[in-house]
Amino acid sequence: MVSEQIPVITADDAAEMVKDGDIIGFSGFTPAGAAKEIPKAIARKATGEHEAGRSFKIGVVTGASTGDSLDGELARANAVLFRTPYQSDKFLRAQINKGETHFFDMHLSMLPQAARYGFLGKVKYAVIEAASVTEAGEIVLTTSVGATNTFCNIADKILIELNDQHPAELKGLHDIYEPLDPPHRREIPIYSASERIGSPVLKVDPSKIAGIVETSAPDEVGGFKESDPVTQKIGENVADFLAQELKAGRIPKDFLPIQSGVGNIANAVLGALGANPAIPAFEMYSEVIQDSVIGLMREGDIKFASATSLTLSPPVLKEVYQDLDFYKERILLRPQEISNHPEVVRRLGIISINTAIEADIWGNVNSTHVMGNNLMNGIGGSGDFTRNAYISIFTCPSTAKGGAISTIVPMVAHLDHSEHSVQVIVTEQGIADLRGKDPIERAREIVDKCAHPEYRDQLHAYFDDVKDGHTPQTLQTVFAMHQAFMEKKDMRGVDMTGSK
Ligand code: 0RQ
Fold first, then answer.
1. C-alpha closest to that of 427 among 401, 403, 446, 402
2. Which of 190, 215, 240 corresponds to the end of one domain?
């Protein structure tokens, strides 16, 4: 027991407090540090309420995606009224794409301030995971910070999952700092990736803690696929490009901090950066620390990593906990408002590397919607970094679905990152450097360097002989390749010459 005032309760007791329509801020940025037992209990309550003929849905606000115990369970119980800012759960995604759950896609750095400003409605409960809690309300968080600090500050009540999978020695891994709101905001005083500006503990008003649920549930982080020849080649291309920039003196010789997205391509890119002898040991100022970072840290290729979550598969997290002193000197977890802060990204000169679903020949990128309609995950932190990066890079395989989709298209079917923010596109075919190029020069660069050879002629046919305008778009045919995929499941062989 923490104190007489803070009761230890069951997850079902906690769920009982939650009412239909409540908005809840849950901890979690990826499955790392996500609440698990209380959302499962809320899902059980929702099912019971629905069986009794009563409505029961809650607003679910988190740091980013979470694990199956949160998004999966609540979606299967049909208990999600709205969801923001990011998700990657297949059940929830299906509900969102059927129009059964409202989802609004937000830049992750902006979620905490939007919650503080009241833009998301009144947050009733913060439901968070902790490694330890004191009577005075000092909380050591677990494998992520995300927006947990903000949720605790603005919620009426706090419910804590005290998880004994995480050692008390985690204290010192986190750096909790929340900016003042306008018109009183000052600069975020971070001048290097490893700079500490806040507190190792999250301080909350202990009278707001409505109860503690004791748990032992591990983070629900899946493993990674071994990189295949395509992701391997993308990684090598990114590393070659950065080595070339270094040699040309366009990147300082000490190198710059790296931000890297999540997933298999991101893992392969980091591996390739570590393996390239021309690239010196570097720092990361990113949002997610994945398995590959830990290996590279061990080998001395990564000197320091600042992020908001430690998204590690169970065996790698175990390795980190067994040698926590080593990693605590090299890893720092910050609130997502700070890890992704545009001001800091611009100041530190971060090289951003994120993944596209598709890119167009002008340099616009779609990161979120398949064929323009169906949400995949969300924009995540990719916009926070891309728009403010020293060099912004997007990677993707040149084709999807066995070659039937070209990821290089005449115009993206949904826009997340515009041509004004995207500087470099990399596929397994090559590197398109868009800096200082006009639209036609960019189109040639992207098609010739990044498109799959099977699609190059038809893409050239779209713009080669069109002389009309600065960006010679032809609206009648701009989505002909997408249309062909919708009709016959293949973008190959589409006649784009009709555009002339
Ligand atoms: O589907 O497995 O059913 O075939 O999309 O594609 O190539 O496995 O790549 O897992 O890295 O995901 C952009 C979604 C890429 C992700 C995205 C299909 C493809 C496959 C996945 P299948 P891959 P990844 C940090 C920064 C946005 C947020 C972000 C993402 C599936 O990286 O969500 O960057 N990014 N956040 O077949 C139709 C196309 C397609 C396509 C791929 N053009 N058309 N389907 N697919 N291209 C994260 C955070 O902020 C926490």
1. 446
2. 215
